[in-house]
Design a protein that fits this description.
By secondary structure, the chain is α+β, with helices and mostly antiparallel strands. Helix content is about 25%, strand content about 30%. The protein has a single domain, classed as Gcn5-related N-acetyltransferase (GNAT) (Aminopeptidase, 3-Layer(aba) Sandwich), CATH 3.40.630.30. The chain has an 8-stranded mixed β-sheet with strand order 6-7-5-4-3-2-1-8, with helices on both faces. The two termini are about 30 Å apart. The structure holds coenzyme A. Coenzyme A binds next to strand 4, helix 4 and helix 5.
Length: about 220
């Protein structure tokens, strides 16, 4: 068996066979704080429809042999739902100029090997290659500091995101709904957006890209 980890970028219809893998990874990984997502395949199907319908969606896969151990996603913000676009429009930022990152989810045993950094590299390189965006952006859930399920010693990703050049914009917020693992029903969460100007001058990164693409509610689309 091939144990080497490989990173592969896919767009358009090439992402469709991996929607299920992403749904399962999101349900597993987002149970952790700060997301605490008590996921269901029905919720996932609604969320993933947006990505499946856009020919310019990007999936960056981390694979070990046949197993998909991580996925990171991106999509032109203009193809996102109204709830995600609205804060940008309200702030005078045209969605057509923003490339949006849906999430990065990596199984815990594979963390700490710079795969998260490579997920950013691949998505920023792709956004640059599309050559019409001024910013890359994502959002993250804003949990209270005294949340009862915050693990002792929890290390947020804020420092990593800042080192990648992202700035948290408290003026750009959206409400998204999902069911927390300790709640009986869905509740609204406050999501805060992070933005980085996209340096369009530099050449695109070296990820291989399979593009067979010709296909074309406030829900959980959480961050880097
Ligand atoms: C986000 C995620 C994909 C990063 O994966 P990764 O491959 O471990 O990331 P990297 O090795 O590139 O490290 C990225 C940062 O994570 C942090 N980090 C790395 N290993 C860590 C560990 N064992 N424990 C805590 N933080 C760690 C570091 O701050 C690091 O940044 P730095 O090197 O600039 O200090 C992964 O942690 C994950 O799936 N987390 C759960 C889901 C999530 O929160 N996703 C982001 C929002 S959608």
């Amino acid at each position: 068996m091939d144990d080497a980890l490989r990173i592969e970028s896919l767009t358009g219809s090439a992402i469709l066979p991996y929607l299920d893998a992403l749904a399962r990874l999101r349900i597993t990984v987002f149970r952790e704080f700060p997301y605490l997502y008590d996921g269901s395949l029905a919720y996932e199907a609604e969320y993933l429809a947006t990505y499946g319908a856009c020919a310019e969606s990007l999936f960056v896969l981390a694979r070990q042999g046949e197993a998909i151990v991580g996925v990171s996603t991106g999509i032109p913000l203009a193809a996102e739902t109204a709830a995600v676009k609205m804060p940008f429009e309200a702030a005078g930022l045209a969605p057509e100029r923003v490339f949006y990152f849906g999430e990065s989810v990596l199984l815990a045993p594979f963390r700490g090997q710079r795969i998260g950094a490579r997920f950013f590299d691949a998505r920023e390189a792709y956004a640059r290659r599309l050559d019409r965006f001024n910013h890359t952006a994502f959002c993250a859930v804003d949990r209270p500091a005294d949340h009862p399920l915050r693990p002792a010693g929890h290390r947020p990703l804020d420092g990593f995101w800042q080192r990648r050049g992202y700035v948290r914009r408290f003026d750009l917020r959206a409400a998204m709904r999902w069911k927390d693992i300790d709640q009986p029903a869905e509740t609204a969460k406050s999501m805060v957006f992070w933005l980085r100007p996209l340096d369009r001058g530099s050449p695109a990164g070296g990820q291989s890209l399979s593009h067979r693409g010709d296909t074309g509610g406030p829900i959980m689309k959480t961050g880097s």
